[in-house]
Amino acid sequence: MLVLNKITEIKAILAQEKLKGKTIGFVPTMGALHQGHISLIDYSKQQTDITVCSIFVNPTQFNNQTDLVHYPRTPEADIKLLETAGCDILYMPEISDVYPESDNRKFDFGYLDHILEGATRPGHFNGVGQVVSILLEGVQPNKAFFGSKDYQQVMVVRSLVKQLSLSIEIVSCPILREPDGLAMSSRNTRLTAEERQISAHIPKWMQEANQLIIEKGIEAGKQFINEKVSKVPEMKLDYYEVCDAETLESISDIKANQKVVSLIAVFVGNIRLIDNWMVN
Ligand code: AMP
After folding, report:
1. Is residue 37 annotated as part of the catalytic site, yes or no?
2. For residue range 203-230, what is the model confidence (pLDDT) as tens digits?
3. Ligand 1 atom, smallest distance to 147 CA
């Protein structure tokens, strides 16, 4: 695997490969890699000729500076994991390579800016738009792979690609989970042993809530989650919403044939975890 820290180097290499007719797959990450990230590498390898991964903890998407400072960084282990997975090129830049000058662009993702992650993390999606646009324009992949764990982010990235008229296919990949059901996340490593145990309730409650939603309606599911979370002193609910799976608009009842997703953000201690499950 080539490990490079300049986008100009990546561009030069990929230009050669494209001339040979090779297709490029791209997996942007913030590092502290786990099997969820590696599953995206696997999808990229299956669907394209050359897989490029990036590891960059993007400061502009953190609305909470403490979260940025404490974001886990494990570069050596990441490189080993990517090598084993068969990743071809790793882009591991300094901030100055991604942002040679400060990025003052303002994106408009419409209502996505104002709901769920957009509402509780102001500026977050604008930062995602900044970094993803720079990375996509630098790597110019045929396909870019994103995890549906960040459900709203996939929608934001699709909107970005449309706004910038990029001819890149955005592939949404399934959530990888720990054996107890907790969605894999780099932030899980920051949980204490006790918090980690408590966190395993999240996927279980979400599935139980989905069952209640189907049997008794959305309000019953919401009540269930609120009650469960409020009984655990270490937990604080940021949001729990039941939404149309295609638009992410919050709904109060399910129409025939409507695809529905439930989404949660919950603090366990100081760590904010997110998850989502299809209801039907
Ligand atoms: P991050 O490093 O957290 O920015 O994530 C990089 C990419 O990996 C994003 O597209 C995430 O949605 C995806 N990802 C993170 N966790 C998982 C997971 N448990 N399963 C699948 N994809 C994931």
Report:
1. yes
2. 999 999 999 999 999 999 999 999 999 9
3. 12
Ligand 1 within 6 A of 184 CB?
yes
Instruction: Provide the greatest CA pair distance for the chain.
Output: 60
- Cβ(29) to ligand 1 under 6 A? yes
Domain carrying residue 254: 186-278
Does residue 180 lie within any of the structural domains? no
Q: Where are the alpha helices (DSSP H) in the chain?
A: 7-19, 35-47, 65-70, 75-85, 95-98, 116-120, 124-139, 151-163, 193-199, 201-216, 218-230
Question: Once rounded to an integer, what is the mean pLDDT over residues 144-149?
Answer: 98
Q: In the prediction, which pLDDT does 244 show?
A: 98
Q: Report the distance separating Cα 194 and Cα 145, nearest Å.
A: 33
Q: Is 27 contained in some domain?
A: yes
Ligand 1 atom closest to the Cα of residue 183 is 19
175 lines ligand 1 (CB under 6 A): yes
Residues near 218 by Cβ (< 8 Å), separated by ≥ 6?
242, 251, 252, 253, 254
| Tens of pLDDT, residues 235-279 | 999 999 999 999 999 999 999 999 999 999 999 999 999 999 999
pTM (predicted TM-score): 0.98
CA of 29 to the centre of ligand 1 (A): 7
pLDDT at 105: 98
| Ligand 1 mean position, distance from CA 134 (Å) | 19
Question: Residue 225's pLDDT is what?
Answer: 99
Ligand 1: atom nearest CA of 186 is: 3
**Which residue from 29, 42, 58, 161 has its CB within 8 A of the most atoms of ligand 1, so it is best to mutate?**
29
Number of domains in the chain: 2
pLDDT of residue 26: 99
> Does one domain contain both 132 and 222?
no
Q: Write down the mean pLDDT value for the chain.
A: 98
Give CA–CA dist 96/104, Å, rounded. 15
- Whether residue 22 is found in the same domain as residue 73: yes
